[in-house]
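Sample 3 of the quickstart, ligand zinc ion:
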Amino acid sequence: MEIPGKIFKDIEIVGSIPIQHFCGCSKEVLYPLLHSLEKKDLKYAVMKAEPIELVCHICGSKYDFEPHEIAGLL
Ligand SMILES: [Zn+2]
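Result:
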C-alpha cells in the first residue's frame, strides 16, 4: 500500500498549482479591461510614463501594462 500513498502525495502537490491554469487569464485577456478605466487615468499614466497594474480577480495574477501599451487605447 506504499505506492498508492506516494501517488496521492504527488497529486496533492500538483493540485495546489492548477488554479491559474484553470483561470486561463493572460495579459491579452486583461488588456480590454483597461477600457473600463477612466480615459483621464489612462492619459495620466501615459503622461507620467507609469505602468498600470491590473490584477485578475479570479486567480490574483498581476499584469503590468506599460505606457506604450496603454497609449494604444487612447
Ligand atoms: Zn487569472
